[in-house]
């Protein structure tokens, strides 16, 4: 379960290096909703790293099969 907008802002002010993202038309239980892929969200924010420093080449994660299928289907 994810916090409300007010709670998200409070957490952002309390946590270092915190980024708040808002998703249109989704509620508190966004991770249980269809069409939401947490891995895709993490990859899109560039927060996933394999080392201490951000390296665009080493940290690159190729799209999963489902991401690839969704993207190719949406762009036909």
Short description:
With 76 residues, the protein is mainly α. The chain has helices spanning 5-14, 38-44, 65-74.
What does this structure look like?
The protein has 76 residues and is mainly α. 36% of the residues lie in helices and 0% in strands. It has one domain. It has helices at 5-14, 38-44, 65-74. It is flat. It starts with a helix and ends with a helix. It comes from Solanum chacoense (Chaco potato). This is Putative ovule protein.
- End-to-end CA span: 34 Å
Helix/strand order, N-terminal first: HHH
The overall pLDDT average reads 80
Number of strands: 0
Overall domain count: 1
What kind of sheet is the major sheet?
A: none
Low-confidence stretches: none
Q: Helical region count?
A: 3
Round the Cα radius of gyration to an integer and report it.
Answer: 15 Å
- Determine the strand fraction and express it as a percent band: under 5%
Percent in helix: 25-40%
Quickly give the structural class: mainly alpha
Broad shape: flat
Keywords summarizing the entry:
76 residues, mainly alpha, Putative ovule protein
Per-chain topology:
Blueprint: H1 5-14, H2 38-44, H3 65-74
Protein name: Putative ovule protein
Organism: Solanum chacoense
